[in-house]
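Researcher: We're teaching a course module on how sequence relates to structure. For the next exercise, students receive a sequence and then see the predicted structure as tokens, so they can try to spot secondary structure elements on their own. Here is the exercise chain.
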Amino acid sequence: GGAVSFQHAVEDPDLGAAVVYYGTSPDPSSLSRVQAPVLGLYAGDDARVNATVPAADSAMKALGKVFEHHTFPGAGHGFLRAQDGRDGANLRASQAAWPLTISWFRQHLGGRLTLTMLRAIGQPFEIHEVDYDAMSQAIGLVREYAHSHGQEVGVN
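Model: And here is the predicted structure for the students to work with:
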């Protein structure tokens, strides 16, 4: 989930950019190792996760690191995968968050993207040089393939 995405930004000095969907933040003492710009997209109704954001925000600012975050009112944890929930709040959050995600990757990665998916086929694989406008379609196809094989895919 999102916590893994943020932790990956701590652990991988070569990471070009990270997007965290509703994941807890790492311990602020570890954030000095983050090299990648991090975008956090949070559900307004997710107290457990949101409680970790202010400390991460303060630490990242103090360290001169890039951490932009958005919280979507009324949305619940997992809003991207549960878009029909919470009287439309999850859908509105998804509709706002996805363009922010694509924009973030365009801004910080340019034309370079490596998308690693672990759960789709049980083995990691990478797709290089993906057109961002086609990314949604590619993720949909991977999810469809995984679902047909009794698995779910998480995109972090």
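Model: If you want an answer key for the exercise: The chain is about 40% helix and 20% strand. The chain has a mean pLDDT of 81.
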